[in-house]
Amino acid sequence: MPEITIEKCKYGGWSVYEFDVYPRSSVLAGQTRKRHINSYEKLEEAEKHYPQADVGCRDAYNSFDHLPDGDDMEAFERECLRREQY
Hints:
By secondary structure, this protein is an alpha+beta fold. About 25% of the residues lie in helices and about 30% in strands. The relative contact order is 0.24.
């Protein structure tokens, strides 16, 4: 089961995030994916709908160091998509 967090929004309210892993077709393949799944005005509402969630901020800590520079990016993306098909 993916990890879920409830985080205080910068401008008020609360956001719910789900963490899993980017698929092979992504340029971030294998790294942590943080996806926004819902928003609430009050923490109690978010906790009611997501009782298993941890309250607090968590960063995905993704890196782009593995990506090629310049024109090689298109070839890299094509290769990622090709691998995803097999």
